[in-house]
Amino acid sequence: MSLYDDNPGREWQWLRGIWAGRGRVDPGFWRLHLVVTVDDEPLGMQDLIGLDFAKFGTVATFSWLGADHRGRGIGAEMRAAVLHLAFAGLAAREAASTAFMDNHASNRVSVRLGYRPNGTTWATRRGEAALMQRWRLTRDGWDRIRRDDIELSGVEECRPVLGL
What we know:
The protein is α+β, with helices and mostly antiparallel strands and 164 residues long. The protein has helices at 8-22, 53-56, 74-89, 104-112, 139-145, 155-158; strands spanning 29-38, 41-51, 58-65, 94-100, 116-125, 128-138. It has a single domain, classed as 3-Layer(aba) Sandwich (Aminopeptidase), CATH 3.40.630. Strands 1-2-3-4-6-5 form a six-stranded mixed beta sheet, with helices on both faces. The N and C termini lie far apart (37 Å). The model has no long low-confidence stretch (mean pLDDT 92).
């Protein structure tokens, strides 16, 4: 089973991983698993990951969008929203993201949102080694593309749980 295969077994494996990850939230590591909905229909997920965030102020993002919903700008919207949470809500210094080199849509979202290339790395996809593009967005870069139409609520109540 693979993250990249659409089947019920993969979905249950993924859900078990999310449920286990929600139980691990401390100042040294947290991962916010956020559901993406349009008109109350879940379409995908957008994660925000902090590793020693209080010390370094850096986050990573991870997203997945159902195949039927790709190519309509939803991926860019969900990433813009989570970056707003990171920078405006949590005072992040920078954000990182990765995408397989042939994931042109995800890589275009990174460029559109002001990320800059930050090297490459390798990961396993469908049992094979695959090259990934690493991306980095600084606070200054985000300030240049920052939107004023994203509203945050409840962030202050979450800060102590995240060690902030």
